[in-house]
Amino acid sequence: MKIKNRQLFRDNSPPNFLKHLFKSLKSIIMKIIYFILTGILLSSFSCRKNSPEFFNGTVDRNINGCSASTGFVFIIKYTTQSNTEDSLSTLTLPTQFKLSGTKIKFQMRDLNSTDESMFCNAMITTPKQKVIYNVKAQ
Q: Are 74 and 103 contained in the same domain?
């Protein structure tokens, strides 16, 4: 019997239960690392809806055929980051800026499910509706 035990440990390998323990620990650690990396990637890409940069724009006009419970819809012409002109429609323009030709600086984001969308009873095509915030005079 002594000879068999010596032959088992002659190559200095640990017993089988230790091999299983290390394999299962390695598997658990790899899963934890995978979930942490996945969480970091998802959180970094999921916050792309908001645009922290400010845009320069001009209040163009309000649309008489469209409204919501918050008031009339306003069209704002603005310059994008790539220096091209674009326009948006919004319901969130503060009262002090609701005059055509007013130059403003603002941030914008896409609509959420909790934001109010506009209702149009005229046959017109409006620019994409956005929520604007942090509006300042230029």
A: yes
pLDDT per residue rounded down to tens, the chain (138 residues): 455 555 555 555 556 767 777 777 788 888 888 888 887 777 766 655 555 789 999 998 888 888 888 788 899 999 888 888 999 999 999 999 989 999 999 999 988 888 888 888 877 777 889 999 999 998
Cβ neighbors of 57 (< 8 A, separation 6 or more) are: 76, 77, 78, 79, 103, 104, 105, 106
Residue 114 and residue 96 in one domain: yes
Tell me which residue range forms the domain holding 103: 50-137
Q: What single string gives the DSSP state of each residue in 75-105?
A: EEEEE-TTS-EEEEEES---GGG-STT-EEE
Q: Give yes or no: residues 16 and 56 share one domain.
A: no
Count of structural domains within the chain = 2
Amino acid identity of residue 98, one-letter, is: K
